[in-house]
Amino acid sequence: MSLERFMNQAISSWMSAEGPDSDIVLSSRIRLARNIKQYKFPTLFSNEEAEAVIEKIKARVEHSSFSKMGQMELLLMDNLQPLQKRVLMEKHLISPHLAENSTYGACLLSENEEVSIMINEEDHIRIQCLFPGFQLSEALSMANEIDDWLEEDADFAFDENIGFLTSCPTNVGTGLRASVMMHLPGLILTQQMNRIIPAINQLGLVVRGIYGEGSEALGNIFQVSNQITLGKSEEDIVEDLKSVVSQLISQERSAREALAKTSNIQLEDRVFRSYGILSNSRIIESKEAAQCLSDVRLGIDMQYIKNISKNILNELMILTQPGFLQQYAGGPLRPHERDIRRASLIRERLKMEDQELGG
Question: Which range marks the domain in which residue 303 is found?
Fold first, then answer.
């Protein structure tokens, strides 16, 4: 299979489309946790109850479509191979918990993969909307519409004083997790992130790596999300996060301007060295690839490099993950083989850009 054809099948809309402030904010995500009142929560429910939850959601989709989601596909985790689940996880469409632990789990995916409804994860239902760029309010609006649509046929576990009831106490209340994925190389290079992260934590927000809790911030990509779900409205949580993200965007742009003024030739050299590594390497590990991709994306944003797609970071940070590499190869790969395949895929992707430019 050609890389272009593989990408057409593999790339989600948030990876290839541009949204507001997409030079810094790669994606915006809203996730709502819900449980159906008549069934025990997933930590305690029986196999029969788990199957009943899936059937209830499946029946809702079959009997009443939600037009904004388009065609929906139900994926049963038990029917998927480990590699298929890993790819869905790498695309941020399902959680590691659903991929690894849920025999009776499932996922409803919209055709453009902006909407993912996880079933029988830590809660019965987790509605996720994933939009390109800085679109938290738009993602929240979509998630709330889906929530209302599902609630027409389901009585959610809810307490008048507390709010929505969830398996984990940290989600009780709104059941809302809002997050943005940000590319912040300027703040790293100017050594400001170690000061900024504790300040963000004090505001009730958390900064994590590309795949959330416990993951590393590869390629200067960070997720900023809320920690508090109780005692605030969904709108207040999102507005608080938007305020902090807006400040981060401003600080990142200021850091890039400062670098251009004080270290312009050094930064340009760094960008083109990284571009050379990506263009010519025959073996490259994921950490080095992520850092070089970050440098090249910064070079594109600062117009050192022209005529290469801004979305190359979004695409290749996902396409060079282990699951995707093995899917593209058509079978399992040992770590060393993945490093070879990663280098080859990156070279092919850059060659595609050259061919499009030449054409």
Answer: 263-357
